[in-house]
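Example complex used in Figure S2.
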Amino acid sequence: MALKTELCDLLNIEKPIIQGGMAWVATGELAAAVSAAGGLGIIGAGNAPADVIKKEIDKVRKLTDKPFGLNIMLLSPFAEEIIELAITEKIPVITTGAGNPGKHVKRFQAAGSKVVPVVPSVALARRMERLKVDAVIVEGTEAGGHIGELTTMALVPQVIDAISIPVIAAGGIADGRGLAAALTLGAAGVQMGTRFVCAAECTAAEEFKTAILKARDRDAVVTGRSTGHPVRNLKNTLTKRIAKLEQAGTATPEIEELATGRLRAAVIEGDVTEGSVMAGQIAGLIADILPAAEIIENLIQDAEIVIKNNCNNLLN
Amino acid sequence: MDKIKSRVIEIVAEELAVDVDEINEDSSFIDDLGADSLDVVELVMAFEEEFDVEIPDEDAEDIRTVDDAVNYLEDIL
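Predicted assembly (393 residues):
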């Protein structure tokens, strides 16, 4: 017996687990490790130019022949050249964030890619289905980084009822219980970000990983609500400073200037006091750094136990 | 033609939870009526349902005001 879903066939992967395409964090090393372990590793293009991302793609292809993905941040100043790169490289799976990939879907699919946008609402999920995307990722506000309003628990079943393509749940999932819960809601798989930051293969600074290991339940706070682009990151000097400015009614440009380049400072330089340590609410659950393969193996085993034992016990 | 306008205004009022009196031809969904980008997606889908049309993303991007919506719908209906 092995836990498998329709997502495995769709993306040609063994386990219904996707690693989020986090900017700066999701490098070729991490994506390759997740893909080699039977999940779907994703390179995060973030705000990087095409030549930088090309190197990450080459890294993955050198390390594994399994399918992998590329996340395109549509608001990036380099979005256009990343889109062209994705098409030339025939990336197996393309996920998109921060915008509507509408006009590019057909070109991606013509290049042989599966297209899986991240959607924050039922209406957008329905529009994406109409564009014939292959699946959608539904990400709740529990997630790290840029977030929407609704929780995973509330949004996932509503989207599942509204569309008939596979739905991947994200936000607040880091262990087998979370995977089992998502599948119970009707999801075809999960995407996890924060859990994979604490993978041995993740190249983020040790300080960044340690901050997540040390985080407790209430530490992943939201900054930037007043700017219209809220971000979830671990409470530190930076988040407190932004919170103060927001309370004082400071104008958006000033707050955005303060936040610019802060993720890079945290991930690359390990500045976890003045940097933006983007992480989800589930950070408090993560207690160890493990190889990606072990994270995935544990997740599947634990989910199978939960589904087999707990669910049956509830009925007795 | 005015019928399209009044139906558009009614949908905008309903979808964005604002009074009909607060809406005029120049009202921008985002700047004047407090919508966010996801509200606009829902609004466009409500237009599609009401007028039984399909509005592609490329066109939807240009529908920012009541007038934009009325003109667009008049063109395609």
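Chain A has two domains: 12-203+286-315, 206-282. The longest helix of chain A spans residues 292-315.
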